[in-house]
Amino acid sequence: MNKHIGSDFDDFLAEQGIAEEVSAAALKRVISWQIAEAMRLQKVTKKALAERMHTSRTAVDRALDQNDAGMTLATLASAARALGQRVEVRLVPEQEEARA
């Protein structure tokens, strides 16, 4: 019998021990996309964003790299401010499993 029958994808990730890693990667993809989209809409170049953030273009490249999950909250806040945005972070309870 397949032990995954009836379980969802989140359960599978947890069983594999990679749930937090996958969640962090997904969040980084979304955040990087949001920064890039704000840049596109405002016609802000990487160089200009780096200047506004008082950092290097390499740091901006890392912030925009969807595969680099190491962005700090300080970098995120700096990028947001430089684009006239703000960051909202909140903790929410995990969804309880539906009871049969």
Automatic annotation (TrEMBL):
GO molecular function per UniProt: DNA binding
**SUPFAM superfamilies linked to this entry:** lambda repressor-like DNA-binding domains
* Superkingdom, natural source: Bacteria
Protein name as annotated: Fis family transcriptional regulator
